Amino acid sequence: MALVAIIISANTLGQITQGRVVFERRTNLKKTLKGNKRAEQFITEKNKIRKENFELLFNESGSSFTYIEPDTPEEGFMKFMTQRNTVHHDLENDELMVIMNLWGNPAYMKDSITEKTWKITDRSREFDGYKGIRAIWEMNDSTRIYAWFCPDIVPSSGPEGFRGLPGLILGLATEDGSVVYFAKEVEVMEVTNEQVQYPETKEDVYSKEDLKALLLDKMGQWIKPEDLDAMFAWY
Questions:
Q1: In whole angstroms, what separates CA 206 from the centre of its chain?
Q2: Could you tell me which of 70, 232, 54, 68 has the C-alpha nearest to residue 158?
């Protein structure tokens, strides 16, 4: 608590309240898809590491996290080995809207934010010239998530809608290193509310539990319940 108080008091001046962050996500498919017999046969030492870029736009009212399409569009089924979701975070109403990319098809989810209990440590690292302080979330009995937040940048948001720390999250990683998000570019710039707002859609919008139930009903013969739970675990 003392460390949190020091961080907050140091942030009363000179806060960055809006801008853009480019993240590189590094996914080890051999770790994330371990036990998936159908997928494992296609993963080799050469293609096991996938690198993808995402953009986070943020201001004091919210944030928008989106996949950056590469200059040369990727072809083949390997692009479906990882999720490339769009996440809008409404800070004023504590809501998330996630446009889930389900094998090339969008599914819309809107729900309240699930609060996470973070333990702030005294360890840190640098991201594009900004200091990130490490915090730990015990997701369950066997999984830890590490986050590095920057006290100089607000609001409390980050990749994939992660939040709850006194500063913007610039780094995020599973304990085993299977999935890692690291900021490689931080830009201070004006971001309008329109850029971070939920998009209008005529499609059905589901709560998290309702969307999970729908997918289990429609795809239960192809996907295991534990794999489905993993798709929603961070939200």
A1: 19
A2: 54
87, 96 Cβ separation under 8 angstroms = yes
In the chain, where the domains are located: 2-207
| Topology (CATH level 3) of domain 2-207 | outer membrane lipoprotein receptor (LolB), chain A (2.50.20)
Residue 170 phi/psi, 5-degree rounding, is: -105, -10
Tens-digit pLDDT string for the chain (235 aa): 555 544 444 444 579 999 999 999 999 999 998 888 878 888 999 999 999 999 999 999 999 999 999 988 887 788 888 999 999 999 999 999 999 988 778 999 999 988 899 999 999 999 999 999 999 999 988 899 999 999 999 999 999 989 999 999 999 999 999 999 999 999 999 999 999 998 888 899 999 999 999 988 887 777 777 778 888 888 8
- DSSP for the chain reads -HHHHHHHHHTSSS-B-SEEEEEEEEEEHHHHTTT-HHHHTT--TTTSEEEEEEEEEE-SSEEEEEE---SS---SGGGGGS---EEEEETTTTEEEEEEEETTEEEEEEEEPPP--EEEEEEEEEETTEEEEEEEEE-SSS-EEEEEEETTB-SS--GGG---SSSEEEEEEETTSSEEEEEEEEEE----HHHHSPPP-SS-EE-HHHHHHHHHHHHTTTS-HHHHHHHHTT-
